[in-house]
Design goal:
The chain has 190 residues and is of the alpha/beta class. The chain is built from three helices and eleven strands, in the order ααβββββββαββββ.
Length: 190
């Protein structure tokens, strides 16, 4: 084998070893943030009109105590004018949407803008969730925000009974003026 052949062989071996070692470190780092692209996402660009908002939470099993890893959390909502699509046409096209996979602690998080109510309606502003994973049936949730004028007193009372799994959640501004909300989910088995 000539020098060029040895050089190519050494390059292949070292490249392969580097890739494998990098994968080992990523899987065994113990850092809950190691896979930002799955459990933590951004739905909108910085120039999207509307109030910036970060929603985070934990997905639990049916017991309400065990965090679930590897659960798919798909979310979608309207823009700051109450439309799903850019021009208010084709409302079956959800422009602001994204999918996360919960991390080892069952966590998910996304950055977006606060959605508006549908134009000329009494439906509260909300975010749709479709959540599924191995051993759990696909479930739909709808996050609504405390203080919305379209939420009735009876809805508040009904949701209060759900405790940390209530679908109506408070929004609070952080020190940077970003709205924040925690929305925990409890899944039912298949």
């Amino acid at each position: 084998m000539n020098v060029r052949g040895l050089f190519l062989l050494a390059t292949v071996v070292f490249t392969g070893a580097s890739i494998l070692f990098g994968q080992y470190l990523a899987k065994n780092s113990g850092d809950e943030n190691r896979d930002e692209t799955k459990w933590k996402i951004t739905l909108v660009s910085e120039d999207e009109p509307g109030e910036p908002m970060i929603i985070s939470g934990t997905v639990y099993g049916f017991d309400g105590e065990t965090p679930l890893e590897g659960i798919e959390v798909h979310v979608y909502h309207t823009n700051a004018k109450g439309y799903y699509s850019r021009g208010g046409k084709n409302e079956n096209q959800h422009r602001i949407n994204g999918t996360m996979i919960t991390n080892a602690k069952g966590k998910y998080e996304y950055r977006t803008i606060k959605p508006a109510s549908y134009p000329n309606s009494r439906v509260p502003s909300h975010v749709h969730y479709v959540v599924s994973g191995p051993g759990y049936k696909a479930q739909r949730f709808r996050l609504e925000f405390k203080g919305d004028p379209h939420i009735s007193e009876s809805e508040y009372l009904r949701e209060a009974k759900k405790g940390k799994f209530a679908d109506i959640r408070p929004l609070e501004k952080d020190e940077n003026g970003v709205l924040r909300c925690e929305f925990n989910l409890k899944l039912q088995k298949k």
